[in-house]
Amino acid sequence: MRKIRAGVIGTGFVGPAHIEAVRRSGIGEVIAIAGSSEKVAKAKASELGIDRAYGNYMDLIKDSDVQVVHNCTPNNLHLPINRAAMAAGKHIVSEKPLALDSREARLLLNAAQRSGVVHAVMFNYRHYPLVAHLRAVVQAGELGKIFAIHGSYLQDWLLYESDYNWRVDPALGGPTRAVADIGSHWCDLVQFITGLKITEVTADLQTVLPTRQKSVTTVGSFGRLTTPRQVEVRVTTEDYASMLFRFQHDARGALTISQVSAGRKNRLFFQIDGSAKSAAWDQEQPETLWFGFRDRPNETMVKEPAILKREARQYAHYPGGHGEAWADGVKNFMCDVYRYISQGKKPGRDPAPFATFEDGYRSSVLLDKILTSSRQRRWVKVNVK
Ligand SMILES: NC(=O)c1ccc[n+]([C@@H]2O[C@H](COP(=O)([O-])OP(=O)(O)OC[C@H]3O[C@@H](n4cnc5c(N)ncnc54)[C@H](O)[C@@H]3O)[C@@H](O)[C@H]2O)c1
């Protein structure tokens, strides 16, 4: 069977992760990349063993051999690139957040629904074995009635004033930063696992560092400033956020988001409290899932294919004790997307085992409401129309 041919736009941090995952899926191959210049694209293509390198993303989109476009660029380029790819009839795998705000995200969802192409948003945390296992546990009613969902997503790579990245600039990253960048993952994940949608929010966003030193040369994501040539810029996007949620069926939630919590690298953590038991999971310890009990000893389950729920087994490729983590979740996401494409399925007609632009739009509406709540210091309803 001929592999599905992909082109990847943006080759910074996450672009190469897409490339590796498409290759590991066994169903796709990456035939082209596009970077911010031809020089950058050519250097990356040679490093990663890819034949075609474009300095202009429209040339990749117009390449008639490319069937799937991966958009791994900064958030301000999600609208134009996703739109152009769909207009050219290409399937699209977009990075999150889907767009800078819900107005842009709505335009993309409308275009996706008209286009007939497969559209996916990389909410990759859905695709871990123990996450899928927990979702099946919840669906089987084993937690009982869920009344609380709480946790945090903490990083430290923007702790110092000398830390700068395009995400800090609202023109490139959007009006919320930490919440859109990592809070979007947490909110998508807990709603996916529990099936409970967030219906109302109150949020308090805080810019801990009101100024930062911006390098005059580009510093990639998770990069450190090495050049002494820098300018001071004023920061308006948040480093830290606290939120309270109301979910469907009267469940309540609380979330802390931070990109300035020293020592925490990529700690997405949640706990779900039910009337029968609680469950907790930490992305930095992805091979264990904790269950808490009132009347008997708590349990820590270790990933082991044979004891996973049926729905989760496809995501565990190795026996227990053989670590599978972030890059494997991305691979599982790509397998789901590429299998769906290869089977000729279509969003809207066939249930998608991955987040689509509809989920991306929902996420953008929630981000807008979080921002409104923080600015107006009040509870805001989340109505997704
Ligand atoms: N799903 C996840 O877990 C995850 C993880 C990291 C990043 N992301 C998302 O991926 C996107 C990219 O983030 P990143 O961390 O890789 O950023 P990055 O800065 O490391 O990489 C972005 C790349 O896009 C390139 N680029 C900029 N303008 C371009 C243009 N006009 N044409 C082609 N390439 C261009 C830059 O040169 C850079 O190489 C963001 O939307 C981010 O939110 C998602």
Secondary structure topology:
Elements: E1 4-9, H1 14-25, E2 28-34, H2 38-48, E3 52-54, H3 57-62, E4 68-71, H4 78-87, E5 91-94, H5 102-115, E6 119-121, H6 129-139, E7 146-154, H7 170-173, H8 178-194, E8 198-206, E9 211-215, E10 230-234, E11 240-247, E12 252-258, E13 267-274, E14 278-282, E15 288-292, E16 299-302, H9 326-342, H10 357-376, E17 380-381
Parallel strand pairs: 1-2, 1-4, 2-3, 4-5, 5-6, 7-12
Antiparallel strand pairs: 7-13, 8-11, 8-17, 9-10, 11-12, 13-14, 14-15, 15-16
The chain binds nicotinamide-adenine-dinucleotide (NAD).
Organism: Candidatus Abyssobacteria bacterium SURF_17
Protein name: Gfo/Idh/MocA family oxidoreductase
Pfam family, one: GFO_IDH_MocA_C3
